Automatic annotation (TrEMBL):
Pfam families linked: TetR_N
Feature: DNA-binding region: 41-60
PROSITE patterns assigned: HTH_TETR_2
Full protein name: TetR/AcrR family transcriptional regulator
Taxonomic source organism: Simplicispira suum
Length: 214
């Protein structure tokens, strides 16, 4: 999932600065939980965090920048979790179809599922659309996803996907998750979406294969 907002004005280094940033992040979660997405404004974030609006802007130039910073942290955490998942699957020699499905399930839950608050934050993050930054962020997130797909292909002993195949697959994968989140699709709570994404991934990794994912 891409992040796509201007960088924070100030990178928190001292303990007090880190505490302020954490308070800002927590206020975002609290507002979304109690007032919904429409209640999330810079002024309200500052009020709940217990800081002045001027102090807020010293760290983040906009509400979108706050969401992007939260997303950056979340993405890093999720990618480390997916790295660990792939390593576990390789070590324990899970069947490829099982490993792909677990990967898809974790990705969907991280970037489109979870609690109502988590789903709201995901939608808000997917809505960020700073054009140039968005393109860079999509490219970066796609490269991480492509790296994982290459590891899966190597695990299967298959030919590595071509750059064109990786481009199509990563954009199709991320685009599906993005629009499922934005449209609040009921498929997010049903196994069909997970299965379709897993089958799509396996079709690219092992052309001609017809894996059973039941």
């Amino acid at each position: 999932m891409p992040s796509s907002s201007p960088a924070p004005r100030r990178k928190p280094r001292q303990e007090r600065s880190l505490f302020t940033v954490e308070a800002i992040f927590q206020s975002v979660r609290q507002i979304v939980a109690t007032q919904g997405e429409a209640g999330l404004t810079s002024n309200r974030i500052a009020e709940v965090a217990g800081v002045s609006i001027g102090s807020l802007y010293q760290y983040f130039p906009s509400k979108e920048a706050i969401l992007a910073a939260m997303l950056d942290r979340h993405c890093e955490k999720v990618m480390l979790e997916l790295d660990a998942l792939l390593a576990q699957g390789e070590q324990e020699q899970w069947p490829l179809a099982d490993l792909v499905r677990k990967y898809v399930r974790h990705y969907l839950a991280a970037f489109a599922g979870g609690t109502e608050v988590q789903r709201s934050l995901a939608r808000l993050s997917w809505q960020i659309d700073y054009r140039a930054a968005m393109l860079l962020a999509v490219r970066g997130a796609s490269e991480r996803l492509a790296f994982h797909l290459q590891r899966l292909a190597a695990r299967a002993g298959a030919l590595l996907p071509t750059p064109a195949q990786l481009f199509v697959l990563t954009r199709a994968f991320m685009g599906t998750v993005r629009y499922a989140s934005l449209e609040q699709s009921p498929l997010l709570d049903r196994p069909e979406l997970e299965e379709a994404l897993a089958q799509l991934s396996l079709a690219f990794l092992i052309p001609g294969a017809e894996p059973s994912l039941a």
